[in-house]
Amino acid sequence: MKKALITGITGQDGSYLTEFLLKKGYEVWGIIRRSSSFHTGRIDHLYQDPHNQPKLHLVYGDLTDGTNLASLMSEIAPDEIYNLGAQSHVRVSFDIPIYTVNTDALGTLRLLEAIRSGKRKVKFYQASSSEMFGKVVETPQNETTPFYPRSPYACAKVYSFWQTINYREAYGLFACNGILFNHESPRRGETFVTRKITRAATRIKLGLQDKLYLGNLDAKRDWGFAADFVEAMWLMLQQDKPDDFVIATGQTHSVKEFLDEVFGYLGLDWKKYVEIDKRYFRPAEVDILQGNADKAAKILGWKPKVTFKEIAKLMTDADMDIAENEKIIKEKGNKK
Ligand code: NAP
Ligand code: F7E
């Protein structure tokens, strides 16, 4: 049985990747951070499933603690490592740049060093990002497009991208970068724009909220579905040679278009509810991202399955369930 170690297992991608690998028969180890409140909501259904009991293990650790990473590496002895852990919010990275770089850049280096010093044969996946293209120099972006990062987050990811390639070339490590464009799901963090919109629109529909405050509505992104994208991570590590791949849908849409889809689906006009709040603008913005994943299609045989419209609909449906429960609880509270 193959063993995979995942950093960021409690995040959106970590949860989908864990599901995917367990189905493939892997033993999965996940690194979780200690926090005062529990944050394993996205993987509880997997951890509590008795079928997964001997196959899913959670251990404490942090990308800011290299000593702990090195001991976990020798204790677990994984065949594959997926480095998904990160302070992943671009806007927040302007507020906490040092922490972001410590986790997203130096954290990767700590992990790579733990692998190198362990002298074990292991395959390594690095969660690189389309944010590295930033102020794009060409559209669409592919593996040869130069980077122009526009945030502390993107700068940290560029560092990790090159360090991953450096360990591949210097030490012969089987190390791959997946340059993933935005991918969303009902498990997306609630402060990313798509989920913020689906949460608010469904709450507005049920009378639980009046307004939605947003920033730049003209930004365009290549939005895919998270469960589709984690399969590409795994495929990269199953090839004969390590390499770097863009993973994207090839379509780009503005935040306004996402608002149209979600509010339109609920029979609402978003212009009546959305207000612009300067706090949500970024000191430097990434105006447009659109990926070209031809290399992944050709070498990995990977293609996205879920469309923009379908993503908007399935996220709205999932958030409507949450909003309906919220309403029931609120009404019960009012009766007391
Ligand atoms: P996410 O939902 O924000 O999850 C981030 C994960 O990283 C969480 O499990 C978080 O743990 C963990 N983490 C944060 N700081 C850590 C630290 N210091 N040490 C160890 N773990 C830490 O992110 P995601 O959307 O799943 O994205 C997964 C990865 O892909 C990230 O590296 C992200 O930057 C990258 N990426 C994402 C996208 C996208 O569109 N989603 C696109 C390209 C690249 P807690 O639960 O404790 O906070
Ligand atoms: O913003 C605009 C905002 O925060 C998308 C991360 O997973 O994908 C993600 O980064 C766009 C931006 O995602 C609000 O200005 C408008 O132009 O959902 P987001 P992101 O910054 O693209 C990349 C690929 C990653 O690697 C990251 O880890 O939407 N926008 N109004 C807003 N964004 C937010 N968050 N909130 C707003 O109110």
How would you characterize this protein structure?
The chain has helices at residues 12-23, 44-47, 66-76, 90-95, 97-118, 152-171, 193-205, 226-237, 255-265, 294-300, 308-335, and strands spanning 3-7, 27-32, 56-60, 80-83, 123-129, 174-180, 183-184, 212-214, 220-221, 224-225, 244-247, 253-254, 274-276. The protein is an alpha/beta fold and 336 residues long. It folds into two domains: 3-185 and 223-247, Rossmann fold (3-Layer(aba) Sandwich), CATH 3.40.50.720; 193-219 and 251-288 and 308-335, UDP-galactose 4-epimerase, domain 1, CATH 3.90.25.10. It has a seven-stranded parallel sheet, sandwiched between helices. It has a two-stranded parallel ribbon with strand order 7-10. The chain has a two-stranded parallel ribbon with strand order 8-13. Strand 2, helix 2 and strand 3 (56-60) form a beta-alpha-beta unit. Helix 1 (12-23) packs across helix 8 and helix 5 packs parallel to helix 6. The longest helix is centred in the C-terminal third of the chain and has 28 residues, at 308-335. Ligand F7E is lined by residues 88, 90-91, 129-131, 181-182, 191-193, 196, 214-216, 219, 221, 255, 280, 282, 285-286. NADP nicotinamide-adenine-dinucleotide phosphate (NAP) is lined by residues 7-8, 10-14, 33, 35, 39, 62-64, 84-88, 103, 127, 129, 180, 182-183, 189.
Number of strands: 13
Classify the helix fraction into a percent range. 40-55%
Tell me the distance between the termini.
54 Å
In CATH's first tier, which class of the largest domain applies? Answer: Alpha Beta
Give the CATH architecture of the largest domain.
3-Layer(aba) Sandwich
- Major β-sheet strand ordering: 3-2-1-4-5-6-11
Structural class: alpha/beta
Determine the strand fraction and express it as a percent band.
15-25%
Low-pLDDT runs of 5+ residues are none
Using the CA coordinates, give the radius of gyration: 20 Å
What is the CATH superfamily classification of the largest domain?
NAD(P)-binding Rossmann-like Domain
Distinct small molecules: NADP nicotinamide-adenine-dinucleotide phosphate, ligand F7E
Question: How many strands, which pairing sense, and closed or not: the largest β-sheet?
Answer: 7 strands, parallel
- Overall spatial form: globular
User: Which H/E pattern describes the elements?
Assistant: EHEHEHEHHEHEEHEEEHEEHEHH
**Multimer state:** single chain
* Total of domains: 2
CATH topology of the largest domain: Rossmann fold
- The number of helices is 11
